[in-house]
Design a protein that fits this description.
single chain; 12 helices; 387 residues; two-stranded antiparallel ribbon
Amino acid sequence: MTLQTAHAKTALERTQRMIIRALAWLRGVQFALWIWVPFAGEGPGRSDPQVLGGYVLAAVFSTTLFTVALRRGTLSPRWVSADVVLAVGYAIVVSRSYPPVDAASITNWVIPPLCGVTVTAAIYGGRYRAGAVCLVVGAWVLGAWPALGTANSAELVTNSVMMTLFAGVAGITGNLLFGAARGADLAAEEAATQRGRAERASERERHTRYLHDTVLQILEGIAQGTRGKDLPEVRRICRTAAEKQRTTVLAARPDGVVAHITEALAEMIEDHPAQEKLQLVSTRFDDRLPDLPTEVVDALTGAVREALNNIIKYAHTDEARVTVTVLEPKGVRIIVVDHGVGFDSDTVVLGFGTRRSIIEPVAAVGGEAVIDSTPGEGTIVEMSWTK
């Protein structure tokens, strides 16, 4: 999956491992059912060498098969094929080693493991699953055929039907589980793709606001002659702006990192054009201010930057005040005040830059920005955020 983390297991991988573990337990129980047989009746010697030898060989192979499968997280076609071929061999050889009356009875250890082989082949046999199941069942019938005409002849048919039905149910169940897992993986990948798109869009939005609030403001100040009175000063301003933009673009802070609002605001105010345009920028920071999530600090700092930009452009005043206080229980309130010309906040429609760079970014991180202004008395921009 392209957008999933490298070490995260997909739903299909988890389903594969779950099914393989279930098959391993099933095969183990099926072999365990016969352990008591050699010790019953006449003792261990009552079993022919090929019966006991075939049991040991099949048990060792099955142990190896599922050990490898659990390590790899899947069953390869080669291992499934080897499992089927070995089952065909002991279905015939071992069953013919029993007396006809016992060939189709529970004393024949091959019956439970053969059922396990057909189940495994039905799930992992791919397009050859039906042929593999028929081959194993046919080998069982061929091996136990001498049981016909004995008291256990009905067991031959019963066990054949049981193997076939178990394989059919297992194949259908496996297909349903794998299909559901693939659907879950596709849904997860689509969700990851959508999250990635949203994150990229948010990042573009953040850079757009940054460009509007910093670089474009600097260029506008240079064009209007309010900043950079001579060439060396213009070069210094451009160099500083370029370095800050490069840092913003290249910096990669992980989600959830917290930052201190006072540090971010102090740095922004120090480099803001207000330091040159306004005669006084009074700031007051509460010593008890908490650390905040990075995205909150970015939004609030950008909103304060835009508020100062608006004072420079529209307020016709040389004084502004920035106050930052604690908002209980773990929040912050920032107030930017000027005593400029102001405007009627009840009738004037806020401009695009104010909405885009103050109100919307603060709202996007769960905060609130309120702008109140009165003609002749100045403007108050109040921003708040609480956890």
